[in-house]
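Sample 1 of the test manifest.
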Amino acid sequence: MIEDPRIPKAIKNLESPRSVYLVVSSKGGVGKTTTSTLLALVSSIERHSTGLLDLDFVNPSTHIILGLDPRVIKYEEEKGVKPYMVLDNLYYFTIVPYTMDNPIALRGGDASNALWEILAIVRWNDIENLYIDTPPGIGDEHLDILYRLRRIVKPIVVATPSRLALRSIDRLVDILREMGYGEILFIENMGNGLLRSYAIEKKLIYAGFIPYINEIEESIGSIEKLLKSDLLSYVKTIYKNLRGFTRG
Amino acid sequence: MVHEWALAEAIVLYIENQGVKRGRKLFVKTGALQSIDREVLEFALRELIKEHGLELGEIEIVEEEPLLKCRNCGYEWRIEPSSMSRDVRETIHFLPESIYAYYRCPRCGSIDFEIVKGRGISEIKVEDHD
C-alpha cells in the first residue's frame, strides 16, 4: 500500500460539512478547547447543524466543558459511527467513551493511526459547521490534517496577549504559511482587542477577542451556564466574523 | 453493519484512487485486534464494489494475529481479543489505540508499548488488475 486507505474516506467524510475549522495553538493554556466548544455552542444555538470533534487524545477535555460523563456519551452505529447528539443542533465526538477517561500515552504513529481511524469512521453528514479541537503544539495529528486535508480545513489560531504565546504563534504561522495556508483566522483569548494590530502585522484574519472573566470557571461543566455567560456575546461576534471563511 | 461498512468504503475508495477498475481477486489483510467480522466486511465490500462499478472477482480476507512489544523492557506478547471483556473488545474494535487505556506490559507494567502488528487493515491488493 502506498497510502493509508483511510485517508480518501476521511476526506470524503470531511467534505460533507460546509466549513471545517481546525482550532490550533502552538502554546498550551491559551483556551483553545474553551474557544472551540463555545464556538460550537454558538453555532448550534444559531440553528446551524454543528459538529464538535475533540482530537486531543492524550488530554481530551471538551466533555468536561460540556459537563458530559463519558458513560452517557453513546454513538449510534450506522455505516460507521454517528456522533453523539448533545443538543438539537450539536453533534459531538470524543474518544473518552472508548478510553473511559483513562490516560493514554500515544506516540506519533499511534496518534496518526487513531486520527485517521476516527476521521474515516465518524460521519458528519448534514453538518454545516464542524469545529475540531486539537492538542497544544504542532504534533503528528496537526501535521497529518494540515498537510493531507489542506483544501478542506480552515485553521483558526488562538492566542493570549502574552509575549511567550505570541513568539510561539509566530512560529506556528510560519509553518502554516509554508504549508500553503493563505487565509489564517485568528482569535484573541483572555484579551481586550490588543492583538488586532499583531494580527494585521502578521496578515492574519482577526476574528475578534474573548475577554477573561472570573465566572468562566463556574460555567465550566454546564451548558446552561455557558449559554448565559457574559462571554457569549463576544463569541457570537467571532462566530459571525468567521462565517465567510469556510475552506482551506 | 457498522465499522465494517466504513472500512469497506475506505478500501473501495482506495482502490478507485489507484485507478484500478477490474481484477481477478481482491486481497485484504486485517488485524485481529480490530475484531472485524469478515462476513460483514465481505458483504459490504461486494455491495460497494457493485455500487462503484468495479469488477474485482474473488475476495480474500485474512486476519493477522496481534503482536505487542514493550518499549521499556522489550518484552513481546500476543493478545487474544476473545480473552477481553465484551466492553473492552468492542472499544478496541472501534479504536484499536484505546488498548493503551486498558493494558500494560505483562512483564514490567509499563504503559509504553507498541502494537507491532495485527492492528487494522495492513494490506489491500488487487491481483491481476488492468
